Inverse folding.
């Protein structure tokens, strides 16, 4: 089993990868492939999540960060926690995951806009690899609101 078997797996660059929920075997593979960090944006789901994901990850010598983003209620504070975690990451290969890579692609595209100089088009193209054909108005509003803040405006303020 390889990390590339993780649901909706995306290689962003040689140090950063995103995906859906990895299995215990996939987490073991990540350690064998030299990953140093796993960031989990999913809430615990006993039907999908390993019961002891954080413990397993740490036992394999990797750092583990859990930022449980409630799918039906994403918060700016969730993004702020993600942003702090990303800015404090040690060097090494990192997997950022959630249940299906929707939360992750939303958060990472916003982070890349704010900190890595991605254009709106780059961010949208990155998200669309996972989001294409889906309809989640609450998330679209959340992304639009944070993009407006990143651009130094607010979604409620009329353009000049």
């Amino acid at each position: 089993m390889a990390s590339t078997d993780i649901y909706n797996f995306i290689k962003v660059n040689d140090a950063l990868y995103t995906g859906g929920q990895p299995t215990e075997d996939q987490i073991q593979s990540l350690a064998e492939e030299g990953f140093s960090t796993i960031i989990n944006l999913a809430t615990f789901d006993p039907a999908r999540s390993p019961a002891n994901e954080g413990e397993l990850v740490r036992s394999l010598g990797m750092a583990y960060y859990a930022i449980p983003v409630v799918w039906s209620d994403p918060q700016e504070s969730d993004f702020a926690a993600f942003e702090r975690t990303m800015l404090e990451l040690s060097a090494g290969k990192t997997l950022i995951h959630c249940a299906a890579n929707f939360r992750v692609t939303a958060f990472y595209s916003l982070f890349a806009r704010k900190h890595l100089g991605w254009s709106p088009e780059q961010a949208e193209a990155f998200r669309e690899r996972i989001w294409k054909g889906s309809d989640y108005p609450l998330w679209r509003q959340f992304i639009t609101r944070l993009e407006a803040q990143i651009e130094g405006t607010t979604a409620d303020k009329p353009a000049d």
